Structures are given as structure tokens and as C-alpha cells.
Amino acid sequence: xxxxxxxxxxxxxxxxxxxxxxxxxxxxxxxxxxxxxxxxxxxxxxxxxxxxxxxxxxxxxxxxxxxxxxxxxxxxxxxxxxxxxxxxxxxxxxxxxxxxxxxxxxxxxxxxxxxxxxxxxxxxxxxxxxxxxxxxxxxxxxxxxxxxxxxxxxxxxxxxxxxxxxxxxxxxxxxxxxxxxxxxxxxxxxxxxxxxxxxxxxxxxxxxxxxxxxxxxxxxxxxxxxxxxxxxxxxxxxxxxxxxxxxxxxxxxxxxxxxxxxxxxxxxxxxxxxxxxxxxxxxxxxxxxxxxxxxxxxxxxxxxxxxxxxxxxxxxxxxxxxxxxxxxxxxxxxxxxxxxxxxxxxxxxxxxxxxxxxxxxxxxxxxxxxxxxxxxxxxxxxxxxxxxxxxxxxxxxxxxxxxxxxxxxxxxxxxxxxxxxxxxxxxxxxxxxxxxxxxxxxxxxxxxxxxxxxxxxxxxxxxxxxxxxxxxxxxxxxxxxxxxxxxxxxxxxxxxxxxxxxxxxxxxxxxxxxxxxxxxxxxxxxxxxxxxxxxxxxxxxxxxxxxxxxxxxxxxxxxxxxxxxxxxxxxxxxxxxxxxxxxxxxxxxxxxxxxxxxxxxxxxxxxxxxxxxxxxxxxxxxxxxxxxxxxxxxxxxxxxxxxxxxxxxxxxxxxxxxxxxxxxxxxxxxxxxxxxxxxxxxxxxxxxxxxxxxxxxxxxxxxxxxxxxxxxxxxxxxxxxxxxxxxxx
Length: 729
Ligand SMILES: [Zn+2]
Ligand SMILES: [Zn+2]
Known about the structure:
The protein has 30 helices and 16 strands.
């Protein structure tokens, strides 16, 4: 035993549809095999870096952050129709300087260098080479390609370039062995390449390092990875000459397996650990600041300005200031100011004010409705004093993180608000957030069936999978008898479902987060990798490659069980004498059903209650009563915010029925099922639904003589629009 090895060349599922390793499994397995270090080197992007970093830290593994970049001659050359003139290049961050250089390189590759894929060139690589390890990379690296073409001099020149630029202690020749056999039964040239690299190592005195180009965790995941490749390339498993890996050895091999691959190169094996031991990064070390909000010169401080805005809002909301309002307002403003979040509220107020003054409806949801300040600033529409909503549920002095206000904007005008914010704080300082689309139950079945050329059975299976949120394939198998019967009685169906079960939940594509916008007081590329929102149109702005954790605390499942979490909070504070910070932690433990943690509060809770004059047995009873509430209790502030919106819409539906239904149908136009429901609802309410009419229809559903007129089909719609604008013109 005693074999020691670190995997430095690792593709995760964020190598989109080329990697099949899920971070959690990867880290667990590495740990189980006794490894202390692990790298992430996805193709051209850093989507998985933060998740990977956190998982490694939690699993007691040293996380090494890197990328396998695409290197091209001139990244500004976008002229080629096919981009096959690129090489793979493995880069690893040695320290935080290296990490920030990786961010820069990734951002540049995904913006300036983007041409069918994210590319960098040597010019930019030289500029951002500090703090990075670099290797000669896999068979697709530029040095390996030259060596195999017997252009030895050029290969040596390249090697010298890397050594000069990155420093001799940071450049390694990468040795791999996957025992690949090509489709025509030819062995992979890897063995031949290793010989050439070994010679280079001797002649130029460049150290070697062994890696395994891993794309999945277990050896038996190779089949799933192959299916994934077919999904990506739009091919079937049976397609001849499709892109395919040359062996099934691209998995997380144990240190012993790695050592066995190269019994004569113990130094190149142990170099993996030597490199890993030098790598130490913390991507979470840097905290960006909120943008500075410029206030009118007549105010002496941001706090004064915020106060003045609130006082102005009081007039609008309440008519006049009362002692109660003033007291609560000052209490909130002082607390916010103490924590340094005055700019946060000024920024929030500013874009809400912009939206309102441009006729864009908006409303905050969630616990922000507990803030009187937010109400007077127009951020929320619920008076917290009237509904007794606690401010401390939203914000309290023991809370370290930023307040969390979720704003709703109408889909068709959200863009205007984002543009306003980008313009105000600088395009460089604002980006939308990336989101990762994962394979859902039905989609994974569809993909697998298509790849296997068994669409018909695939359709039969997907029809049996229920629709709706939280549907998983396993739950469907357990819950739908017909599906289970099909699975048991049909070999092909079973094969499809087994494979789909493995693919389900894997990251498939990236998208733009509908609501997440990041704003900072400096260029975002300083601390987060960015990419173009639409590679075909660089003007359309940029998105991050990191998905920010979003605090969605609300339990959508609390159908009808109206027990507010806030009641638990009030009991904790008023009876048990908990602080707001403590009671919020207690509530969180409850709602996450962390019962060990919850039990930990029991002693304090009962003791506190007794101190406040509650009898011991009653206090114990109270504690056991709270337990089941926590898991299902609803946030009252959230309920109140939605109740107000529900009231508005109910009023409109009751008093302007046809208009309401026409607007609803226009919004849901792309969803045939919802339109069918809406038509049924119109019938129920005696609102006539008229079919589309070339002469009368518009591009949206319209009101006509008390009924709803169907919108014109898209083609005629465009035609009509053109004709009408001609008439007008
Ligand atoms: Zn590669
Ligand atoms: Zn690779």
C-alpha cells in the first residue's frame, strides 16, 4: 500500500454533456480511496468551481481549481467556419493570484475569445500566467500533437516557451494511459506519445506528472457517459464513426491503480501530490462591496437621505406621521445603518422608483413585508403594522448576511429595469446570473430513448410520467402502476429507464436566471467568471458562471395548514426569552427538521419559559406543540404579500371579467393546456370566447363586445401588424 496520488485532470458534469461526474460522488469516492487532494478542470468554464470547493472543504479534501482551456493561435480571429484549430491546455490555480487569473482567462475566453467555443491565445495566457501550474495536457494538447506529427523541434520550442512563461517549477509534461482502442481496432497513440514525452523530459529536464483524464466517477458509468455524448452530439449509439471515447478507463482510479499504470515512473506519480500540496485557494475569500449610491448634495449622509425618503413615503402611505410609525421607522433605520446596509435600501428604492415611475408594476414578496421602512419606500405593498408582521423575521442585528428582498416584475418589462440598473452602476459592474438546466424525469427518458433509437417506447414511458414540480423518475416508478408494469414487462423500457435514472438531474445546459442580477462597486470580472448572455450577440450583455445561492425559504407545500412560523418566533422571543437571532436559528432547525439541533434548544426554551412564569409541564407541552409546526408553518409576511396580490386580481376578475381573462390568456398563450382551462373558465362565467378572425384579431387576446376575441396566429399576426403599420404610416 502506501500509494499516493492526486487527480489533477477532472471533468465534472459542468463540462456540459461531456463530463458525467457529480461533484458530491466525486469527492466522496476520492475520500474513500484515501486521497487528500482533488482538482476540477472543466472544459473552458468554471461553472462548478464554488460547488466543488464547498464539497471538498466539507469532505476534508484540498480543492484545486483549474480549467482545461481551449488554446488557439489568435483568439480574435473569428473567421473560420469550423473551429478545429484549437488545443487543450490544463491550468491549475496554485494560489489566489492564480485563481483570479483563471477568472480573467475564463471571462476573456467566453467573451472576446468566443468562437464556437471559449478560446484563449498565448498572448493573453502570458499576461495572466502568474500563480498557475500548466501541463502539456492530453492527446489534444499542442505539444503532444506536434510530437506525434514528428515536428520535434517545434514541440521543444513550445515546451521552452511554457517553461519560460510559467517558470520551470510550474510546467509539467502530462502522462496518461487509458488503454484506448479506436473503432478501426488501432490502438490510441498515447503509448507512443508517452515515449516521446519521456524523451523530452530527459533532454529538457522538464518534470512529468501522471493524470487520468477523468470524465466519470465509476468504471461502470462509462455507458452513461457514452449516452451523454450522444445527447450532446445529436447522434444515436448505433451511429457509425460518431464521437466516442476510446476506452472505459476515464474514471476515478484509485492511487494503487494509478501506480500500477506506470510502475517505472514513481516520480511522475508522486509529482501529482507535490503539485497538489502547493495548491491552496479560497474563492470565497474576497467579498465584493455594494455599489456606492450617490445622494443629492443637500443631504449630509446616506442615512439622512434614506430617512427623508421614508418620511416622504409616510405621507403617501399614511397621510401623517404618528408616534408609533416614527418609533418603528427609526428603529429599523438605525438597525440597518448599524449593519451598513443603507446603500442596499437606497439601491433597492432607486430601481423600484424607476419602475413605478415608468409604469412597471412591481412588488416584493417574502419577509420584507415585515419592514415598515420597505413599505414607506414603496418596495413592499403591505402595511406591517396592520398585520403585525415582525421586522426581525426579515432583519435583526444577529444576522450577518445581506437582507433578502425578492422583487417581482412582469416578464415583458423586467428587461427595462435590468437595463436601467446596468446603465446606472456601469455595464462592467452588473450582470445577470447563470442558471443550470438539469435533466428532468421526462427529458432524460426522451433523450435516452432517442439515443437508443427507441422513441416509440420512450413516448409510451413519458406519457406515464406525471407532470408537475418535484416529479422524479423513481417516484413515478413507485407510484404509477402502469409504468412499473411496463418497466417489469418490457426489456427495452427497462433499459431506457435504468439509463435515464442515472442521467436524471445531470446538468444539461446553462441559461439566464430570470431574476438574479448581480451589482457590485467594481468590475465583476475581478471576482466571478463571466460569459456572454448570447454568444451570437455580444451586445446583449453578460452573465456570471457562478450560480448564487438563493434563499428560498418558503414552503410551497403548506396547503391550507395555516400555522405561521411567525407565531413560533413570537413564542420563542416573548415566552422563552430567546433573542431574535437565536429564535431564527431555532426556526431554521425546525423547518429543516434537524431534530438533534432542535432538541438542543429544548433546555433553554423550557428554562426561559419558566423564568417568564410558565409552569414547567406547560412549557414542555408548548415545546412539543411547536415541533410539528416548524416543518409546515408559513411565513406570515410572505402570505400577506401574496394575499394583497390575490385580492387585486380577484377584484379585477370580479369587476372586469372579460379584460382579466383576455390578459390572462395573452400571458399564457404559449401553454395550450392553460388556454383550454381559461376557455372553460370563460364559459363558466358566461364570457363568450370568439375564434381568431383575420379582420378582427390582434396579436394578443382582446375584448370584443363583452367577450374575448382569440388572438391571430403568429404568421397572420405578423402580416396584420405589417399591414396595419402601413395603413397608419
Ligand atoms: Zn483534453
Ligand atoms: Zn480532459
